[in-house]
Amino acid sequence: MRPEEIKARLIEEAKRLNIDKIGFASADPFLELKERLIEHRRKGYESGFEEPDLEKRTRPDKILPEAKSLIAIALAYPSRLSNPPKSKPGAYRGIFCRASWGKDYHHVLRERLEALKKCLLDMVPTASAEVLVDTGPLSDRAVAERAGIGWVGKNTALITEEFGSWVYLGEMITDVYLPPDTPVTEGCGDCTACLDACPTGALVQPGQLNAQACLAYLTQTKQMVPEPYREKIGNRLYGCDTCQVVCPKNRKVNFTHQREFRPDPEKVKPLLKPILGMSNRQFRREFGEMAGSWRGRGPIQRNAIIALAHFRDRSAVPLLSRLLREDPRPVIRGTSAWALGKIGGEDALTALCEAEREETDADVRREIGQALARLRREEVSSGSPPKR
User: What pTM did the predictor assign?
Assistant: First the structure.
């Protein structure tokens, strides 16, 4: 078959598979991207979740020798909840970012790409092809941009004309030549809404993200969240959507036709306190199908504690006090100490004083000391005599 015929058949198969966008590009090295990544690394802006080998991130032939073409796909996901549950005093809720709504997109995209790969191999039995989704070495956004799916915006997200940036991306590398598509020339123009709205200033300049300061990254780490960022996390349990929500290209964009990504409101906006009592098994049963569960329950529980402090939820003090006293994980104890210091009150002060006498971990002791100092300063400033 001629390359044009193979491409046409793949486009038809993509429609049948309910793939929202498909594009084709050459498998040439991403030379400009490599220079940006070198600079990115030099400045310390990497998250640590990326493929460390820059050659693999920018050279498709390092993944598939004799690579000739890249096939990029995009699936749209919802951006709004219908009748979302509301937070109430004593029953406050957290939020998972939109990219974690519904079934884990890694599985969905891989299934679609594997079906597309089968179609290709049916036409060209001697072909080789490799499927990549998010965790693969290549930059999904760079591939999608070259393949004409959309353009990389100032917030570093891939923006499509039809679906805004509410899309998941995946790609296939093959040694079959396929006529490439034309990259999209549209861009963000003079708009700086995402840069202006970033809660931590992690978007240091158009198209450059300091992952170490990005809330989406910080919610996924397993260690203590650096104190300057804790209050900025708010009630985020996983990820951050701010730079996408404010994007004009995302205004009034909400697609729900991909059934797998339709959210369960109770799971994507769950009650906070029940999360803190979950075992690993309970957590997997409740959230295991979501992309936001990939780091396990620890980061989500830590973020739930931060969210309770954000809401100043006095009803959570007994639970936080128990975590501070009994939880075997220093990160949970330390975050609980910080939260008790933020929430305040006599019971929080009592719990912190008791923990100060018993705690042996140096980092947790530091959090306890800082929380106690904060509460005592507040007592003095309010005119109340220090109780302890």
Answer: 0.94
Residue 264: pLDDT over 80 = yes
Name the H helices within 249-361.
Answer: 265-268, 272-276, 280-287, 297-310, 317-326, 330-343, 346-358
All domains of the chain in start order, with CATH? 3-82+101-174 (no CATH), 312-381 (1.25.10.10)
Side chain identity at residue 184, one-letter code: V
- Residue 325 counted as an annotated binding residue: no
Residue-wise pLDDT for 69-118, tens only, equals 999 999 999 999 998 999 999 999 999 999 999 999 999 999 999 999 99
Whether 235 has a binding-site annotation, put simply, is: no
Determine whether the annotation assigns residue 194 to a binding site. Answer: yes
Catalytic residue among 28, 134, 347, 363: 134
List pLDDT tens digits, range 333-378.
999 999 999 999 999 999 999 999 999 999 999 999 999 999 988 8
Q: What is the rounded CA–CA span in Å between residue 324 and residue 257?
A: 44
* Residue 191 annotated as part of some ligand binding site: yes
DSSP state letters, 122-167:
HH-TT--EEEE-SSSSS-HHHHHHHTTS-EE-TTS-EEBTTTBT-E
> What's the pLDDT score for residue 186?
80
Task: Write the burial class of residue 66 (CB in 10 Å: 0-12 exposed, 13-18 middle, 19+ buried).
Answer: exposed
The reported pLDDT for the residue numbered 383 is: 62
61 is known as an active-site residue? no
222 is in an annotated binding site: yes
> How is residue 35 written in tokens?
């220079």
Can you read off the two tokens belonging to residue 98? Answer: 């939109």
Tokens of 182: 């034309």
Average pLDDT, the chain: 96
Q: Is 147 left (phi over 0), alpha (psi -120 to 50) or beta?
A: alpha
- Structure-block tokens of residue 164: 């805004």
